[in-house]
Design goal:
The chain is α+β, with helices and mostly antiparallel strands. It is 64% helix and 10% strand. A five-stranded antiparallel β-sheet has the order 4-3-2-1-5, sandwiched between helices. The two termini are 38 Å apart. The N terminus is likely disordered.
């Protein structure tokens, strides 16, 4: 199965999460490390709500990296020592330089200066190989360059980064998923979006994008299923309603699509499943039940007629071959 990828130019809006400024940020070290300066470890400590602290280990370049550790204020006070000068002298300048690299990379990428963007992101990853923004940005840059092999490598790396699927990065993995879909990387995009659903199953945009990906791949059944789920979560998504009405119109008019839907090893069972999904999709989009049933019945009748036509054609074809054998 296949489907044209040029029929839709719209993209669902993505709600970027607002990140509140932390109330307290500093650097700490373990008190037990005080007598062992060699190999001493430092953490960036951020005060959270409910009397907890988030700790991120600082790497050799003085930037926080890896997955955070959450501890209570009792453990924090008992086992960690504040390193205020270390933060001001080393960590804050290093983090500001890293942020500059990332901003320059993003600006270059937005302006289509892809080689400059790649250099900035690569430099940021040399400073912190687990940096989420740099990893996403580099993957987007490779996709924009059409370098799908390297984009695949970045995709595999992203899946290993737990922090990549945090709420604050939702807009980045959404953009990455869209770019993968547009480059024909349907399997990867679906794997990516499903990780997003694991993170936030209430976001209708994720289900919309999954439906779009299945549409691009020509998988009508799953396209209908996920678009229905999107509309059931939020009927007010205008793009999803437009997509639904387009699909219904295409189903009524596109004979090749109807033949694909009616065919396959599952025969009548598959046709029944798809028709049920079509009806549910219309209802989720706000179509009255009676109207949805009527339209679905018309589509069903057309599918049956096309299947009968194909069977008759095959019989005629068989007779022609038999005629050839006689001569």
């Amino acid at each position: 199965m296949s489907a044209s990828s040029s029929l839709f130019n719209y993209t669902p809006s993505v709600r970027k999460e607002e990140v509140e400024e932390p109330t307290f940020v500093t650097v700490v070290s373990l008190r037990t490390d005080s007598h062992r300066i060699q190999g001493k470890k430092y953490w960036l400590a951020t005060k959270l709500d409910n009397d907890q602290f988030e700790l991120l280990l600082l790497n050799d370049n003085w930037v926080p990296t890896g997955d955070p550790t959450i501890i209570g204020d009792g453990e924090f006070a008992a086992h960690y020592t504040l390193e205020l000068d270390y933060y001001q002298q080393h960590v804050r300048p290093a983090m500001e330089k890293q942020d500059g690299r990332l901003k320059r990379g993003e600006a270059h990428r937005e302006q289509g200066e892809l080689y400059s963007a790649e250099m900035e992101y690569s430099e940021a990853l040399e400073v912190d190989e687990k940096n989420v923004r740099a990893t996403f940005g580099l993957g987007m840059t490779y996709l924009a360059k059409g370098d799908l092999e390297r984009a695949q490598e970045v995709f595999a790396k992203v899946l290993q980064l737990k922090t990549a699927f945090a709420i604050e990065h939702k807009h980045m993995f959404n953009d990455f998923g869209i770019s993968m879909r547009k480059n024909g990387m349907f399997r990867e995009a679906l794997q990516y979006y499903n990780r997003g659903v694991d993170l936030d199953s209430t976001d209708e945009n994720l289900f919309f994008n999954i439906a779009r990906t299945y549409y691009e791949a020509g998988d009508w059944e799953n396209c209908f299923r996920y678009l229905t789920m999107c509309l059931e979560k939020n009927r007010g998504v205008r793009e999803a309603q437009k997509f639904c009405h387009y699909l219904i119109k295409k189903t009524e008019e596109d004979e090749s699509m109807l033949r694909e839907m009616a065919g396959g090893e599952n025969g009548d069972t598959l046709r029944s499943d798809i028709l049920n999904l079509l009806r549910k999709m219309q209802i989720a989009a706000g179509v009255e039940l009676d109207d949805a049933i009527e339209k679905t019945h018309k589509i069903r009748d057309r599918m049956i007629a096309l299947k009968e036509e194909d069977m008759q054609f095959k019989e005629v074809e068989k007779d022609l071959y038999k005629l050839d054998d006689d001569f």
